[in-house]
Amino acid sequence: MGKARSRRSPVVAFVLACLCASSISLVSATPPAPDWMVTDNPIGHSGGRLVVALRSEPKTLNPVLAVDAPSRDVIRCLTADLIHINRESEKTEPALAKSWTVSRDGKQYTLHLRRGLQFSDGQPFTADDVVFTFQVYLDEKIHSPQRDLLIVGGKPISVQKIDAATVQFDLAQPYAAAERIFDSLAVLPRHLLEAAHQAGTFSQAWGVSTAPVQFAGLGPFRLKEYVPGERIVLERNPFYWKEDHQGKRLPYLDEVVFLFVPSEDAQVIRFQSGDTDVLSRFSAQNFSVLDKQQQVKSYHLFDLGPGLEYNFLFFNLNDLGSKNLPEIAKKQVWFQDLKFRQAVSAAIDREGIIRLVYAGRATPLWGHVTPGNKLWLDANISRPPRSLDRARQLLQSAGYSWKGDASLMDPRGNPVEFSILTGASNAQRVKMATIIQDDLSQLGMSVHVVSLDFGAVVDRFMKTYDYEAAIMGLASGDADPTPEMNVWLSNGSTHLWHLNESQPATPWESEIDRLMEQQLITLDYSARKKLYSRVQEIVAEELPVICLASPNILVGAKDGVGNFQPATLDPYALWNIEQLYIR
Amino acid sequence: MKRNYKLRAALALLAAFHVFILLAGFFAPYGFATQDRDMAFAPPTRMHFVDAQDKFHARPFVYVFKNNISDSSYAEDLSYVYPLRLFVPGAPYKIAGMFSARVHLFGVDAPARISLLGTDGYGRDQFSRFLYGGQLSLFAGIIAAVLSVGIGIVVGSLAGFYGGWIDNGLMRGSDLFFALPWLYLLFAVRAALPLHVPEWEVFLLLVSVIGLIGWARPARLIRGVVLSARERNFVRAARGFGASDAYLLRRHVLPQTYGVALTQLALLIPQYILAEVTLSFLGLGIGEPVPSWGSLLATLQHYDVLSSYWWMFLPAVLLVPLFFAYHAAADALQERYESISL
Questions:
Q1: How far is A269 from chain B (nearest CA, A)?
Q2: Which chain A residues have a beta carbon less than 8 Å from that of B121?
Q3: Rama region for A386: left / alpha / beta (φ>0; ψ in -120 to 50; rest)
Q4: How many interchain CB pairs under 8 A, A with B?
């Protein structure tokens, strides 16, 4: 008995040990559960189709090259980024990177990717795809418009794969908005695009005529069909990596259809007639038209308050030495006089603009940061009310005088006459120009309104400098000051009123340069805010641009669209498209 | 005799229209650029004879429009009546660019406004802008039509009289003008122009482009008349007596073309007015704030204006009797000259 027992227990123990070992190895052989993101939206049900209008056909579906808004709108549904800016809270949140750590000196970011994810064609997503993506974005031969975002401290970001689910980014200097760089940098599938990149044909890849099977992305939808001139149809991505808190895989919608509807008025008509489900960003006048029929036609309109767009009047302060524009050069003497600009700003009827151009759905501006940017707005800049008397006093103190028939003369006796240029396609800006023309005529200035097509206008701003004054609007896609660098740096590419400065033209311009460079590398929010508030004050005092108004963000959706929560950052209506459903 | 009355009636209506427009400053209660920012998109002012207390006034009166900010509608404020006044002093204006005056045919005391056709997006009176706009559109059309018919007479008579290769060359040239896509040509010309072109230069440009493009049809018609005219016996006889070409043309052939020329003129004027309206509608005309009939109608391109503000259509409606009058004149002229040549 004892012998049998002692002989059996080691055998039994051995067999049990083998079983355990094999079961352990079996367990470790199956892959771990995928790291999906769990969202906290209200639960919707699957199925349904969403129809949306696009202003024009996309020029390309290649995320690295797309510049125009329609292309970006479609690409956003097909791709995903590493760190995403939540459009509602305006803060960053994990996306394809589930977490990240920053080194103490702020120069190294280590991103931990989600495991077990797949592209829309089933192929696995790994760190190799991320490294490839950044190689392409940084490739100088491809000329991606987003390449500039990845140059920090004069040097491109370096990307390194640590393991299959970890990527390390090294910056040349600490960068306050580093996390925000990653938003909208779409991760590309290496298995589909590496060959094209190595062959040098990447710029031709993923154009609009590419077959759907050649696309793959990590976005909520994938390309199903493209009918040129009519529509683009996207279908649900069965491999999408987000689920709602009940465990149902997103997106809810089966299909998204983008119709090409070229003008805003046509889009409003189609929304009203029920052809489209969502109407994104339309004018205040159309809001009044649609407002009356909300109950009858079962749709809902949203006035979200001011966004980030600021419209402004500016004067041509470029160096005209090399151009043959003697008439404009003579008028620049007026434009360069701060008192002249202050007088113009004092005479403009901003309240009238809000009422007549935007039907009350806009905010007057005296600085370039709008009330829609709660984190960065400086509430202390001066907002002087309209006063023609103050304008006349300013002009008089600058040496201007009025001739008998009340027309304004400059100190040398020339009549003050100039033109305001604007793009014909933007009816609001043309209207603002007409109102300003009337306002300035009360000061005795003779102002003409010239509206040309947008391409010709941009040509004059950027190349020929053949304009006197102009009205323009700018809106960055992000509330952070960093995307505005190109506007406010004296050598910035969108420093419209004075391009290609070899050095700052005035002491306050070099002050703005210093402040903007400083805020770029300051990591503490309140210190950055002080710097940027000072920039706003300088802009409001020295008036390189005369800010006019910021239109409210207006969107609409049919009542049947569930989870519709428009935000004030672009894309206003569809930023949470994976959470939308049809009731 | 009936024909005579038709022609006279048409000419009388046309004369009245043209006088109204020529003296726009007098007939218009306000200037064309006077904005009233509290009265944007106000409907036409209503004239009343009976007030809120049911009292009858012999002189018609208006109420002040109060703007209801919340829903952008206008309601009449019944507390005060503002009677219509005749020959009121108002904003100064110039007649034919030379004579200065201040008296307007009718008006009301401030703060009331009398806008017979309503106001536009800046609160400018549409009726005044219609009259001032007519100065541009109407006279552009007339001058362009005279230019066209003038060139048509020259080219047509030369082609018809001489025949042969002159005829061939000129007529093939006119084919080219028929075929030109003139609208795109105009866009290209506008883009090539300097940033701000003075108003009168734009006016001349409009007139010359419209006129120079359209001479082909009158030329053909005149050529037809000349071809038949030069075979007439009295023309042959004159030639037999040794008359020179110039004499024949001046004394015998051209007088026969006047009927066709006049009819063409009466037909082309409304066509060219419409051409100017089209150009201004598309934004190729004179810039703000100078009105033209085309720019008055251009705001209708926006959906909200189209659906909410019906009075913005009225300038188009008012053009209809003008064109009827021109066509009636053309009809009458045609009948008159046909009967003569028969």
A1: 8
A2: 356, 431
A3: beta
A4: 69
* Cβ-nearest to B195 among A352, A356, A467: A467
Helices (H), A93-177: 127-138
Q: Are strands A446-452 and A545-558 parallel, antiparallel or unpaired?
A: unpaired
State whether A359 and B287 contact (CB < 8 Å). no
- Within 8 A of B301 by CB-CB distance, chain A residues are 265
Give the DSSP letter string of B114-136.
--TT-B-TT--BHHHHHHHHHHH
Closest CA to A78 of A227, A193, A189, A200: A189
Q: Is B289–A360 a contact, with Cβ atoms under 8 angstroms apart?
A: no
Helix axes B199-213, B126-162, angle to 10 degrees: 40
Is A53 touching B (CB cutoff 8 A)?
A: no
What is the average pLDDT across B158-163?
Answer: 88
CA–CA separation, B67 and B39 (whole Å): 7
Residues from chain A contacting residue B73 (CB–CB below 8 Å): none
Return the percent helix, strand and coil in chain A, to nearest 5: 35, 20, 45
**Coarse DSSP helix, strand, coil percentages of chain B, rounded to the nearest 5 percent:** 60, 15, 25
What is the nearest CA distance from B290 to chain A, expressed in angstroms? 10
Q: Which of A135, A129, A134, A240 is nearest to A181 (CA)?
A: A134
d(CA A536, CA A530): 10
Least Cα distance to A67 among A58, A56, A79 occurs for A58
Query: How far is it, in rounded angstroms, from Cα B165 to Cα A279?
Result: 63
State what percent of residues in chain B have pLDDT above 90: 29
pTM metric for this prediction: 0.83
- The model's confidence at residue A419, banded by pLDDT at 50, 70 and 90, is very high
Please write the tens of the pLDDT for every residue from B98-141.
888 888 999 888 888 899 999 999 999 999 999 999 998 998 89
Residue B190, pLDDT > 80, answer no
- Which of A283, A303, A356, A447 should we substitute to test contact with B (largest number of B Cβ atoms within 10 Å)? A356
Least confident of A195-209, A234-248, B169-183, B260-274: B169-183
Q: Which residues of A touch B191 (CB under 8 A)?
A: 452-453, 456
Q: Which residue of B has its CA nearest to A287?
A: B304
First to last CA, chain B: 17
Kindly report which listed range (A1-10, A214-223, A449-458, B271-280) carries the lowest average pLDDT score: A1-10
Cβ–Cβ gap A360/B69 under 8 Å: yes
Exposed e or buried b for every residue in A28-58, given b needs 16+ CB within 10 A?
Answer: eeeeeeebbbeeebeebeeebebbbbbbebb
The number of beta carbons lying within 10 Å of the beta carbon of residue A578 is 26
User: Which of B195, B283, B307 is facing A466, going by the closest CB pair?
Assistant: B195
Under an 8 A CB cutoff, do B304 and A286 touch?
Answer: yes
A285 close to B (CB below 8 A): yes
Beta strands in chain B (DSSP E): 48-50, 56-68, 73-83, 85-95, 99-107
Q: Which long-range contacts (CB under 8 A, 24 or more apart) does B176-179 make?
A: B177/B213, B177/B214, B177/B215, B177/B216, B178/B216
Q: Under a CB-based contact definition with an 8 Å cutoff, are residues A56 and A262 in contact? A: yes
To the nearest whole Å, the CA of B288 is away from the closest chain A CA by 6
3-class DSSP state of B77: strand
Instruction: Please state, in angstroms and rounded to a whole number, the distance separating the CA atoms of residues A484 and A520.
Output: 11
Find residues 332-391 of chain A whose CB sits inside 8 Å of chain B: 349, 352, 355-356, 359-360
For A289, the closest of B69, B301, B304 (CB atoms) is B304
Q: Taking phi first (over 0 means left), then psi (-120 to 50 degrees means alpha), and beta for anything else, what does residue A305 get?
A: left
Q: What is the ipTM of this complex?
A: 0.82
